[in-house]
Design goal:
With 731 residues, this protein is of the alpha/beta class. 32% of the residues lie in helices and 17% in strands. It folds into four domains: 60 residues, Phosphorylase Kinase, domain 1, CATH 3.30.200.210; 218 residues, Rossmann fold (3-Layer(aba) Sandwich), CATH 3.40.50; 202 residues, Dimethylsulfoxide Reductase, domain 2, CATH 3.40.228.10; 132 residues, Beta Barrel (Barwin-like endoglucanases), CATH 2.40.40.20. α4 runs parallel beside α19, α9 crosses α10 and α11 crosses α12. The radius of gyration is 25 Å and the shape is globular. The N and C termini lie far apart (61 Å). Bound molecules: ligand MGD (2 copies), iron/sulfur cluster and molybdenum atom. Iron/sulfur cluster (SF4) binds next to loops.
């Protein structure tokens, strides 16, 4: 190798933005070529860990299918157009539709990767303000909405979500989460498998409650199967035991709590025996679990997707908080704690009076409640399809694929062509964006800087890291935030009433995402402020650190951090208490019916990232992963064997999918992963299309929701499964 070539090599350190774990990566490049991606051994948080997905940093960067220029849909396919033409057309169409039909006639949907791009998030927020429509939707309502809901009611701020103090706890109870595969969610913890092993090595225990014996369950001391959707009953029963056996010990927070007696009262109605049939869990085991949890030196109960995206999501998240609180594990080392990030977005928002909101408005067709300024995405299709005043006529999507990711995606897919106008900020022509009139593609991660505005708030340890761009962005391309900025000015061009006043206009222009972070860090609780001699944090210092700065373990911060009136915690917010009746009625009714049918749950696997990493060979090769898991007994009754094709039917749709017979799922439960279904026409995802799979959200149901929060119930969907032959007798 010639010296000239080797001097061209360089090493770049950054944070992987693909999931919540925030691993540090070391990328070796020669010129524009990426030679290798490894874990950054010196990253203060991840210490060298990465997962297989880190290679997607290279794959997506180099993907020939990834758009670099704006495109317009024509009768003869997609044509490239100039940015200025694109912005003009978008603004003209949106302004026109808003002027004719009112501002809410233009809706927005923001997807998950926006949260992994701080600049996209800040720019997008600016754009949404300028759009001035109350018809906002996002992936929140197919995900963590119940966490925000409960944080808002209990702690006074939708972002005040307690995080398991994983590295110090002696007892981790995981309900409906699979962090070994997902790498942790609302629990940013790189190298989580090692952390879980360490937990056990120091004498701690892990218990997993899940209808599937997951990869996390494999690592745990105890795994209990639970009937999908019944976790709230289990939690009530555990609380009942803790009250009856006098194990309540809220500790330091005792004199801050309101409503403890009321909690005692309603839990009294649910001893373990009364919920055994519905949950499928032995009452002795429930008792034992409750006692062990309460007696543990420190303990934390953590619930994720399985208990959020189900019919009683908000109740589950509330009862989980109560369990942590009454056992004295909230805000205590080894329990559930709050972060104190360098850029304290929670404190900043609260400073502007923004803590969250609930039920200020309802959707037009079904009357679903708003939360935090957004409507549940389960209502999106009907708001497009139902005629009348207030109908959605145009849609802006950014970093999302709701056709594959939201319940009854098929119906949304049918609704999109009826829009007068649709524009997507995305770099793929996928199942959703193919319906757009225009697609505006932003740069990809390696061409931009990175800062975890959100995930530092949700991490198991306080750390801070900032990544500079690896490559200069290609000529003629724009970052997400620049696209949003241009859209904002174009809107003002066609509707001068939206022109910001002089100072505001100047400020908007000056306050680039990077300056926002610099200010946020400087003025945050750990920042240098304006003192030039201070040795506290500035963005410059964070950048110089290269591998991040460790700010230490989570620290108790209550009651000071509480955003509630008088800094008290009301354990019994009225909407949640009232929702207990819905829970009881549901199980009374379902006990009366015979439930011979199967219920469907989801799953994730290590080489996916929702719907968008299937266009690289290494992420799709090998045996088909989009399969139906089914218990041997259930399979036998339907004469299904491993590898057979089955038909799965639900109220909303039908898919045909290979069966994988396994004892890993409990009887009566089947599982299909989401994010597949790339067989739709008109995609520009050449590799993904060859490994299409089916979309589980063609089976999930937009009317099956957590009625309290409006979150989608993606788990626990009633389905019927039969051998494919039964549907094709001719074969
Ligand atoms: N049945 C079922 N459904 C589910 C789930 C489930 O467990 N079961 N999980 C739910 C969850 S938790 C989530 S978060 C949602 C995700 O749902 P969505 O956010 O709607 O979908 P994604 O698959 O994440 O699609 C992301 C899109 O963003 C684009 N993208 C990637 N990076 C960028 C970027 O930097 N800028 C822009 N502008 N675009 C970018 C990709 O090309 C892709 O098109 O799915 C939900 N749907
Ligand atoms: N590899 C990979 N990692 C990812 C993602 C990905 O797509 N692929 N997506 C990322 C995103 S956006 C998110 S939000 C996180 C999600 O992170 P997690 O929540 O950890 O991931 P899931 O695999 O959805 O775990 C949900 C678990 O709940 C179980 N479950 C289903 N129904 C019920 C029920 O009724 N009760 C109980 N107790 N359990 C139930 C399922 O069997 C499953 O094991 O993962 C992130 N990380
Ligand atoms: S665990 Fe998440 S952050 Fe870490 S390398 Fe994998 S995808 Fe990236
Ligand atoms: Mo998510």
């Amino acid at each position: 190798m010639s010296a000239a070539i080797s001097t061209d090599e360089r090493i770049h350190y950054r944070t992987c933005h693909l999931c919540e774990a925030m691993c540090g990566v070391e990328i070796r490049v020669r010129g524009k070529e990426i030679l290798s991606i490894r874990g950054d051994e010196r990253d203060v948080f991840s210490r060298g860990h990465i997962c297989p997905k880190a290679l997607a940093l290279k794959d997506v960067h180099e993907d020939a299918d990834r758009l670099r220029k704006p495109v317009r849909r024509t009768a003869n396919g997609w044509e490239e157009i100039s940015w200025s033409e694109a912005f003009d057309e978008v603004a003209k169409r949106l302004v026109d539709i808003q002027q004719r039909h009112g501002r809410d006639a233009v809706a927005s949907y923001v997807g998950n990767p926006q949260v992994h791009s701080y600049a996209g998030l800040l720019g997008g927020a600016k754009f949404l303000r300028a759009l001035h429509s109350r018809n906002r939707y996002s992936a929140t309502s197919v995900d963590q909405l119940p966490h925000h809901f409960v944080a808002y009611f209990l702690y006074g701020h939708q972002l005040m979500i307690p995080i398991p103090d994983l590295d110090r706890t002696r007892f981790l109870l995981v309900i409906g989460g699979n962090p070994v595969v997902s790498n942790g969610s609302l629990m940013s913890a790189p190298d989580i498998t090692r952390r879980l092993k360490d937990l056990r090595a120091r004498g701690g225990r892990i218990v997993v409650i899940d209808p599937r014996r997951t990869e996390t369950a494999e690592l745990a001391d105890t795994h209990l199967f639970v009937r999908p959707g019944s976790d709230a009953l289990l939690l009530l029963a555990m609380l009942q035991v803790i009250f009856v056996e006098d194990l309540v010990a809220p500790g330091a927070l005792a004199d801050r709590l309101d409503g403890l007696d009321e909690v005692r009262e309603f839990c009294r109605l649910h001893p373990p025996e009364s919920v055994a049939a519905a949950t499928g869990i032995d009452p002795h085991k429930m008792r034992e679990l409750a006692r062990d949890f309460a007696h543990a030196e420190t303990a934390v109960c953590y619930g994720r997707m399985g208990v959020s995206t189900q019919q009683f999501g908000a109740l589950c998240q509330w009862l989980i908080q109560l369990l942590n609180i009454v056992t004295g594990n909230l805000d205590q080392p080894g329990g559930a704690m709050f972060t104190r990030p360098a850029f304290d977005i929670l404190g900043l928002a609260a400073g502007f009076g923004q803590r969250g909101s609930f039920n200020k408005r309802r959707t037009r067709v079904r009357g679903l409640p708003e939360f935090g300024g957004e409507f549940p995405v389960s209502a999106l299709a009907e708001e497009i399809l139902t005629p009348g005043q207030g109908k959605i006529r145009a849609l802006v999507t950014a970093a999302g694929n709701p056709v594959l990711s939201t319940p009854n995606g098929r119906r949304l897919e049918e609704a999109l062509p009826g829009l007068e106008f649709m524009v997507s900020v995305d770099f793929y022509i996928n199942e959703t964006t193919r319906h757009a009139h225009l697609i505006l593609p932003p740069t990809y991660a390696l061409e931009r800087d990175h800062f975890d505005l959100i995930f530092h708030v949700l991490a198991i340890r306080n750390t801070v890291r900032y990544s500079t761009p690896l490559f200069e962005k290609a000529e003629g391309t724009l970052h997400d935030w620049q696209i949003f900025d241009c859209l904002v000015s174009s809107l003002a061009k066609y509707d001068p009433s939206r022109k910001p006043r002089l100072f505001k206009g100047w400020l908007d222009h000056w306050l680039t995402p990077r300056r926002s972070v610099a200010l946020g860090i400087r003025l945050g609780g750990r920042g240098a402020g304006w003192n030039p001699f201070s040795r506290r944090l500035t963005l410059g210092r964070v950048i110089d650190s290269q591998h991040g700065i460790d700010l230490g373990p989570l620290e108790p911060c209550l009651p000071a951090r509480l955003q509630t009136p008088q800094q008290r915690i009301n354990l019994v917010p009225a909407p949640l208490v009232a929702d207990l009746d819905r829970l009881r009625n549901h199980f009374k009714a379902s006990a009366a019916e015979s439930t011979a049918d199967l219920v469907l749950i989801g799953r994730r696997d290590p080489r996916t990232n929702n719907s968008w990493l299937h266009n690289a060979k290494r992420f799709v090769k090998g045996p088909q992963r989009c399969t139906l898991l089914m218990h041997p007994g259930d399979a036998e009754r339907r004469q299904l064997r491993n590898g057979d094709l089955a038909t799965v039917n639900s109220r909303t749709g039908k898919v045909e999918i290979p069966v994988e017979v396994t004892e890993e799922v409990m009887p009566g439960v089947v599982s299909i992963p989401h994010g597949w279904g790339h067989h739709r026409p008109g995609l520009q995802l050449r590799i993904a299309m060859q490994h299409a799979g089916v979309s589980v959200n063609d089976l999930t149901d937009e009317t099956f929701i957590d009625a309290l929060s409006g979150n989608a119930a993606l788990n626990g969907v009633a389905v019927r499964v039969s051998a494919l032959a039964a549907y094709h007798p001719a074969r």
